[in-house]
Amino acid sequence: MTTRPCRRILLSLLTVGLAFAPCVVAEVSAGSLGGPDRGVVLMSGGSSIDPSPWPGWRSLRLDLDPRQILNPDAVAPDDGQPDFAVDPLSGDLVVVWSSFLGSSHEIVLSRWNGHFWTEWEQLTSNAQADRDPAVFFSPDGTMHLSWWRTLGDGTPAEIWYLQRLPGTTGPGELEERVTRLDEDGRLPDIAWQMDTPIDAYQRSLGGIHAVHLSRRISGIWETRQLGESTYFDASADGTTDLEIRLHSERGRLWITWQDAEARMAYRIHDPDDTGEDRWGPIEYYDYDPRETEEREIVREFARKQIKRMILPRR
To answer: What is the 3-state secondary structure (H, E, C) of 6-48?
Structure first.
């Protein structure tokens, strides 16, 4: 599975001394290692250009039951990077990603059942390319999923959403389009706040990247712009990814995005006493990009620092 390792890092790395290349070929798995704690193992196999294994790769792989390897052959069909969430009712780890299923990329799901990964469930089925899903569970166990869809013919990319009720399988309820017909949207993230799903995504036009947030109210998606950036990632293959992340924890909600190579922007959800949907001003966090050669790890540390400023220590 080709992935950048710090795409929403909810991972417990159970190996020591794991080193990542800027873009890696990796496999995602989980196991108890003889104890009751569950975790996710992201095992690197080298760059997507030269997928030679790092030391210990083969031995780690041989020590695992094959059913503990999630999607080991994903590099050839160009499957997408995974996103993770924990089902609050079962405690199971749920992983979604974009998989090439013969004619197009579709969103699939697998669940860690405590021993191995379950058989994949296909959540979308169409002739378009469905990419970069984000998954989130609300407290009642409902799964919320968002992704972007493209025809590849120059028409605007679209943001889509579906939910699946607790205890159900299959695609879930009917898909809903989040973006307007004339609006381009891609690279979404999703969260749950004020009893409704919230979708954040970027819209890029002429070198300007807008950060949009859409809230589902009475079945209608209401969209607003939270910020914009002219950040240009020279190493990106295609559109610059602002790495928009929604963070929902301890009753607080905030959003982060990349504003420059060494600066992260963020806004904090600050509803008034009447519950009006209000956001604080844009704030910035500057960091030293030279702290490590792996910039995505530095960015994840920056998100952690922002979190520490927003949430009081327990």
So the answer is: CCCCCCCCCCCCCCCCCCEEEEEEECCCCCCCCCEEEEECCCC
- The β-bridge partners of 106 are 99
pTM of the model: 0.80
Query: Nearest Cα to 82, choosing from 117, 32, 42, 49?
Result: 42
Q: Are strands 93-100 and 220-229 parallel, antiparallel or unpaired?
A: unpaired
Question: For every one of its 314 residues, what pLDDT tens digit does the chain have, with 9 covering 90 and above?
Answer: 333 333 333 333 222 223 333 343 445 554 444 444 444 444 444 444 444 433 344 444 445 666 777 776 665 567 888 898 999 999 888 999 999 888 889 999 999 887 788 989 999 999 899 999 999 999 999 999 999 998 777 778 999 999 999 988 877 788 999 999 888 999 999 999 888 999 999 998 888 999 999 999 988 999 999 999 999 886 666 678 999 999 999 889 999 999 998 999 999 998 877 667 899 999 999 998 775 557 778 898 999 999 999 997 76
